[in-house]
Amino acid sequence: MKLNPRSITAVLLLAIACGTALWKRAQSAAAADSDGVTRGATDPTWSPDGSQLAFSLFGSIWSVAAGGGEARQITASGMYHAHPAWSPKGGRIAFIRGPNPAGRIPNIAGRLVVADVDTGHEQEIDTPFPTAGKPAWSPDGTRIACALQVPNAGALIYEMRLSGGPAERLQSRLQNGAIGPWVDTSWSAAGNELIFAAQRLGAAQIWSMPAGRVPIMIQLPLTTYKKSDITMLDSVSAIPDGSGVIYSAVVVNGKGDYELYRVPPKGGKPAAVTNTPRDEFAPAVSPDSRRIAVVSNHLGNIDLFTMPIAGGEKTHVKISGLKFRSPGGRLRVHVRDETGKPTPVRLYVRASDGKAYCPQGEQIFYYSLNPGSPREGFFIGGGDDTFPVPAGKVTVTALKGVEYDVAEASADVAPGDTGEITLQLRRWTNWTQRGWWTGENHFHANYNGSYYQRPSQSMAWLQAEDLNTANMIVANSAGAFIHDKEFFTGKVHPLSNSRYVLFWGQEYRNSDPLGHMGFLNIRKQVPPSYTSVIGSDSPYDFPLNTMAALHAQQQGGFVTYMHPFTASVNDVFDTGLGAKESPITAALGALNSIDVLPAGGSAYELWYKLLNCGFKISPGAGTDAFTNWRGINRIPGSARSYVEVGPAMSWDRWVARHREGRNFVTMGPLLTFQINGQPIGSETRVPGGSPYRATLTTEVTSPVPLRLVEFIRNGEVIESRTVDGQAKSFRMQKDVDVDRSCWFAVRVNGVPARGFDTPMAHSGAVWVNVDGNPTLIKEDVELMLRWVDRFGRLLEERNNYGPGDNRARARNMIAQARSHFEAKLNKARASH
Questions:
Q1: Confidence of residue 715 (pLDDT cuts 50, 70, 90)
Q2: Rounded mean pLDDT of 221-244?
């Protein structure tokens, strides 16, 4: 069955519109048809006769017939191998060997190596610095050009002779700053030019420069992108007949996804070669200049395709099997939950060669398994998974959220045989039985990465991490293109079930001065979705975030500030992110939560200050995970909120109880907290005139050893206990006399361990209201007034309000916030 990108998108959009049981079956079938045929191959390069493609897969270099078939392993040494370039004379392939796997898109830095195609023998080429781009061979096969990472200068192109001798730098560093960290290069035989993709000044461009070191050299930009285009370049391939250059780029304020473009050899207006709904990466033009090998994610996973040089339908290079250089076999892994049933997990694999493998059709990811250790490969397993591995010892490790112990086992796979491993997971606790259900506020399925994740993959993540729900994010990135808008329906997604719920919300993003907000439970996206984006339809610092938050609240939305503080700063105005407008949003009654995890630290302090100004704001957790990144930035649900929903999961009730503050946030430890039997989120009203004795009680249990448990009152630590030894449970109690309104909470830290980088947790507040007065701390109200003034001055300095009465409306809202805090300051002074 042959699927083209347009038919896949049409089915997807129809599915979202219908939302029926029939759609569920159709969507499931479509996912199986598309994802099941892929391998995850990337970085194609043609053999000199055009009959073979070499590529990177599972950290090694492989080759396959250009029409598809069994792939043969070429390199089998340790570390990770990527970015192959086939010598024009045949017989050898240059590639990069690095200690770390790929990041957001499959780029790795390391050493330049040349391998013999037949024997696999590897020769390392001496370079003064690590590589910073794909290598390119000279037409005569005697030299290699490759960008190297020069300290304080960025990626500069060098030339290395295979016969030996020092590497020659072909470019000088910029006088006014460093260029980017990665530059792909292609050597054009026609005219002996080096073609490269880089942002040297202003916008990113495709450049040309003479090969070889010359006394005076002029680098000529072949493209004319503007800074307002917000262009990102992936890689470049010179057409061997000299008729131009093929490259991959995303024009963010244009179409918004990676496409292939062609530009004439002397520069000019680029012509689009592809126009698809997904991403096209890493083009390589065939030696006869008639075809392009390209990496595409239009089937979900990345894989190899070929297409005519002029564009047209892509042909999938299907890899039917893997032939390892040493003997290989297969591994079958069974994972069972506490009921004995197969269960989805995050499954790490370490084969005998130190590398990770996964089943055909699955996407492989890289993230640290142990705190502080290099990233390792894993995939989202379904409970019964089979995949190829080199013969020898294979170790697999299964993780499933917070409430299951890590499980690990090994097997010896004999050549040509299938080894088997069964992992029995142990659930050490079950908080859904107590009525607590987990979720997080900030989960991106697709965000400038290499894979394309559909709702079925997002559901698999929830199941594998035992995360009951997530605010799936529709959002822009650097420019006007909005990711995942095709999934937004304003209601619970049809793939949801009684235990796991998908709901697409929105990240409302201001590019710098205001901060980023998360809108949960909205029925319609709040326009304009982003502000302060140059070159877009919303270039102004207007509307203010608070205006958008009020719009979200009016439709039943839940508003949180995401990544509200950067740990390395103590002034929020010193960071490009940060919840700079949060005091105004709170003062106007439009703020429900602050995502205090995974940041902790200063994010805690911001939340404390707002609570001390009389606001009822719940703690939130949002990982900002980008699950279409091969080198995933964070595991979804690694920071999560436990919300007291009741015996059955309900999205509406989860949101409502989170709004009420009936929750705690965690990156491992689980806790209860009460004051005189009153739970998290409650408020006890007491008359004034006599002290009220508050008995604070917490019980903490954890999958990792505990380190510190603290009681917090109005942001100050009033009791701190160090947990001795390897204890994973702890109970603490304290009596406190209360004579004025205040709030209490409990804060926990644990010991980093496998699967838990920074284990910590924080309860929501429990309030004690004395004589009907709000909790007001004078110094914190004064801080908020100072904050509002600084925010107003920032907007005036930028003077980017836009047309009409925008300035007056913004000033009026800031004035309302100031009046709010002035009134509270008078109350705070009167109570002292």
A1: very high
A2: 94
3-state SS, one letter per residue, for 275-297 = CCCCCEEEEEECCCCCEEEEEEE
What is the maximum alpha-carbon separation in the chain?
93
Per-residue pLDDT reduced to its tens digit, 770-793 = 999 999 999 999 999 999 999 999
Asked whether the beta carbons of 609 and 786 are under 8 A apart, the reply is: no
Across the range 572-581, mean pLDDT stands at: 90
Classify 510 as helix, strand or coil.
Answer: strand
Q: How far is CA 635 from CA 154, 315, 432, 458, 563, in A?
A: 30, 34, 21, 12, 16
C-beta of residue 213 within 8 angstroms of C-beta of residue 168: yes
For Cα atoms 133, 136, 139, give the angle at the middle one, nearest 5 degrees.
Answer: 170
625, β-bridge pairs? 443
CA distance 733 to 711: 9
Residue 213 token pair? 């070191």
DSSP assigned state of 259: E
**Contact predicate 221/233, CB 8 Å:** no
In 3-state terms, what secondary structure has residue 448?
coil
Helical packing angle, 21-35 and 455-464, nearest 10°? 90
Q: What is the DSSP string of 604-663?
A: HHHHHHHHTTT---EEEE---EETT-SS-SS-TTSSEEEEE--SS--HHHHHHHHHTT-E
Summary mean pLDDT of the chain: 93
Burial of 266 (0-12, 13-18, 19+ CB in 10 A): exposed
The pLDDT value given to residue 566? 81
Q: Residue written as tokens 């916008």?
A: 203
Four-residue CA torsion sign, 122, 125, 126, 129: negative
For residue 121 the two structure tokens come to 């023998």
739: pLDDT strictly greater than 50? yes
d(CA 247, CA 226): 17
